[in-house]
Amino acid sequence: MDLDASVIWVGITNRFAVLLNVEQKEGITPLLTEEESEEYTSHSITRHKSRGKFESKIGKVVYAFGRYNKISRATIPINEDYYLLLTFTKEATNVDQIIMQKVLVERHMHKFVA
Question: Which of the listed CATH numbers 3.90.220.20, 3.40.50.880, 3.30.450.30, 3.20.20.70 matches domain 7-110?
């Protein structure tokens, strides 16, 4: 949460799309209920797994990103079993930079281990 002011929600999920931990920025009213977040997570992980079909030709997914009218969201594989989900404010314009230079660098520094 402290990597960038535009990050308003962080979730860790396993490969079965079970949210293991969620943190939300104080003062932010969630757009999705807890149940809706779990459903969204399930769809995100399913989409991520479907991309594996093309991995041998285009490489592994570094992250998947969706920009919506009210927020932006990213799904970042940590390893084969866990994923980092991030939600950004709608004003965030430098999401690729945040993910590539802050989130992924931080991930490698701490070597996420489940």
Answer: 3.30.450.30
Structure tokens at 87: 């939600």
Q: Is 60 exceeded by the pLDDT of residue 108?
A: no
Contact of 68 with 76, CB cutoff 8 Å: no
Spatial contact of 51 and 69, defined as CB atoms under 8 Å apart: no
Q: Tell how strand 64-67 and strand 19-24 pair up.
A: unpaired
Query: Minimum mean pLDDT among 11-15, 51-55, 65-69, 81-85: which range?
Result: 51-55
